[in-house]
Amino acid sequence: MFNKLRPVWLVARRELRDQFRDWRVLLPMLILTLCFPFLMNEFAKETVDYLNQFNANLVLERLVPISIMIIGFFPITVALVVALESFVGEKERGTIEPLLTAPFDDWQLYFGKLLVGAITPLIASYTSIGLYLWMIHRQGLTFPDGMVMLQLMLLTTAHAVVMVSAAIVISVQSTSVKAANLLASFIVIPVAILMQGEAVMLFWGNETVLWLGIAGVVIIAVLLIRVGIAHFEREYLLGREIDTLNLKWIARTFWRNFTGGAVSLWDWYRRAVMSSLRRIFSAFLIMVVVAAVSLWLSYDWVMVNVSDAVSRASPEALKKVEENIEELPEFSSMSGHLDASFLFLNNTRSMATILLAGLTSFGVLGVMIYMLNIGLIGGVYALFKLLGVSPLPIFLAGILPHGIFEIPALMIGSAAVLYIGAVIVTPQTGKSMGEVILEMMADWAKLFVGVVVPLLAVAALIEAYVTPVLLLRVLGGGMR
Asked: What sign for the dihedral angle of Cα 243, 246, 247, 249?
């Protein structure tokens, strides 16, 4: 085992030696690491003085953890240039050939670069965080508890690994340092948006949810590492000299995979669409299992938490809820006013959101959005049960008629997104990463146009013109 890891350390040591000789990298990192905690401390002081006017104690308690998370993030953004230049920088300097001809495996070269790319920003981040903690200690501010500090350090580490892994993937796929640096925004901006969500979790103070957030970031980091290794080819690094945007090739490749050589619509369904359905069959089965788990989790959560809230509620609060329900419009007045086109566009927009979220997270966020959509059914079912209304007849009339078309469409579209993520992280010999993504997008487009859209169109028509009639009959003409 040690003999296999030794080349990783040799590559990392070589990289560290070159890195610490480059003052253009060290100086900005050193300035930001040592100066930013003081700037953040001054900002925190002004914020505390302002919030003290309003006795906003909860905000003040959460300010230090959020400041720690931000302080840990900024040194990583500066040190990211090391990872961005890891392979393409050596190519431009003419030092890539001795490295690639060394008797090392691909994963050893890759992990050597990854190790250095992650260690450098983490040292800077930990140093910056330590300096900030020393300052708040001298000021007598309250430290976060041990569990929150552990979560913050794990988040900082996970952010560094995610960003460095993505940067090395870009470095492998780029042909110039300039191109790699321009693509850095596609790393920094998504992680910055992710941190906004994590800041909300810190304000919320729910440690369980924050653990789930850490787990999600770690999963994406592992998938990014897998992508880098899967698409790491020495011949590709040596052979490509310039990036070209060949729109004709892109259109031709996409269209060839979309049509599948079909000569008619029936032939297209028989050859192209059916082959895509067979490829995503395993992912579709996973979506069925995920749907069952989501239904059970949402049903159980509502039954436990909402029932406890109802039992603890005062008679005045329950009376106010009843008054709000009585102010809702009669269901019978809504019948005939549902727009099928609006329902169809809303559902297709949801499918597009699942695709975009899945593409940025190798299917992880797409599956989470899918779980939320399916989970709503279990939650509403439990809510009806708590209200003393028999939910089964309502769901048979209100969900089943259009659900037999809409839910399979949702499952097929989500399964295609999950399949895309799985294929991207799988080695594809003889194919570039761009070609693999084009083929997968063509697969998704085939299923979306040929299966998902027709199912959603039928579901929208039934939901607009059939479901309300059935619900009215079950409810006796209204919800009350």
From this structure: negative
